[in-house]
Design a protein that fits this description.
single chain; 92 residues; mainly alpha; 6 helices; 68% helix; 0% strand; globular
Length: 92
């Protein structure tokens, strides 16, 4: 997956996340960034990588998102690899 495709998928994930107040607040708390700042940085590849990380660590959220958008559940992980830091080794 190319970075542009990865960013589009991550933007969809961020949009989905923004529609769930509880989860958006959780992401903001874990990232240490206010919700307004998260949305302002929506074009930042590093922010988008963080959004995908958040989804990848919550299987229920990931599954709901993929089902809602008819996305193959493997695509978010592939997209994450195309964004900054995605080439780091995975220890799981």
């Amino acid at each position: 997956m190319q970075q542009e495709e990865a960013e589009i998928l991550a933007l969809k994930a961020l949009s989905y996340l923004a529609g769930i107040d509880e989860m958006m607040d959780r992401f903001a708390a874990l990232s240490g960034i206010g919700t307004g700042d998260i949305l302002e940085r929506a074009q930042d590849p590093e922010m988008l990588a963080g959004v995908l990380d958040f989804f990848l660590f919550d299987e229920a959220l990931l599954t709901e998102f993929c089902d809602a958008h008819e996305i193959n559940p493997e695509h978010p992980a592939q997209a994450r690899m195309a964004l900054p830091g995605g080439d780091l080794p995975h220890w799981t």
